[in-house]
Amino acid sequence: MTVTETGTSTDVLAGVKIIDCDAHWTEPPDLWTARAPKSMKDQLPYQTVVDGMTLWFINGQSWASTGGNTIARDRQKVLGSHVVQPFEAIDASSWDVRERLAILDEMGVHAQVLYPNGIGFSSNHIFAIEDPKLRETVLTIYNDYMVEVQRASGDRLFPQVILPIWDMDLTVREMAKRIEQGIRGFTLSDKPELLGLPELPETYFDPMWDLFNESGTVPNFHIGSGFRREDVEASRQGVAFRTAKAAQAGPPPTVAPPSWRWFGRQRTLAVSACLAHVSNMRIVANLCNSDLFDRYPKLKIVSAESGIGWVPFLLEDMDYQYHEMVTTPEELGLAKRLPSEYFRDHLYVMFWFEKSAPAKLIDDIGVNNVLVETDVPHPTCLYPNTRERLADAVATLDSHSRRRILQDNAAELYKIPLG
């Protein structure tokens, strides 16, 4: 049987073990307090409910939200918002290993690559903690916990843990420790310069890239990973401002927000999400125009939650602009190959809700460069009816392409056992 007109049959996926390359793990309430040294127990992050909303606090100051959660208790997906509040209303599959494995079985997914949730998609929230000792402790406990999650999952959950990039010696030690513990990759800020650090190809980051190159572990750039904690807070306040009656009478913004300020909260979120999905064009274009892959030829880098429909345009655009703009010996000598050639050998992108791009653009992107995700439990996640929706998306592809996109690319990249 093939996929029907309603897209309800999943027989085209027979024998394929789907690997979800971007899902999120909501930080549980006792993540830090249960693992805190006695001397620091009252300094580490804890949850408090304020006006019906659960937030993370440090030393009496709000620090982070609980993140995007749209699956409420009893596996009910909530539309129209990006948060289920308070924390007790969130389904346990967002933060409990046994429950997450149960929902994976329900979804028909073999394994998941996990990213943080409320604390941001890289280490920027943690970098905002001023006390260096507290900052390092928060990061270490988080990574220790995610190693626990991976081990408890029986090779089905694979967290991409965070790095203390403000200290390169500490970064290398943390990488070596986590690689030894079986971690397959790390999530990074795509804009460390916003934190006052060097840009990614500068010599400051060489020890990190050396270890990525030699170990085969994966650097991941999730959309929104470059947001500073203060950017997230400003965005949260901006959404509230634009939903107030006084919004249209307010002062003109100094920087244009993603959406028009007279939009309501839901339309603001919808526009912001659309633009966030293609925000990784910046990191992909910069990586492919640099000499990073000449210096580190074994690097494999992932652009997470950014979709794939824009990729053929960017590949064509990068090469066209290169031929038109790059002419001097100095500029020509920076890198050895065309931007699109670096992409083919070193970059991965992924889709979830898209139908047009998987059906029409795989050859233009490269079947070996495409992964799939569900984004559970975030808004627009492929839940419920996960396998049916993926089957519909890849129905027109040949069996080799389906298997590469849904299973083999990720299994090879993240060294995920298929059983």
Automatic annotation (TrEMBL):
Keywords: Lyase
Residue ranges of domain Amidohydrolase-related in the record: 19-415
Pfam families: Amidohydro_2
GO cellular component terms given for this protein: cytoplasm
Biological-process GO terms, alphabetical: secondary metabolic process
Domain of life (superkingdom): Bacteria
GO function terms (MF aspect): carboxy-lyase activity; hydrolase activity
Keyword check for Calcium: no
PANTHER family associated with the record: 2-AMINO-3-CARBOXYLMUCONATE-6-SEMIALDEHYDE DECARBOXYLASE, ISO-OROTATE DECARBOXYLASE (EUROFUNG)
Name of the protein in its database record: Amidohydrolase family protein
Source organism of the structure: Frankia nepalensis
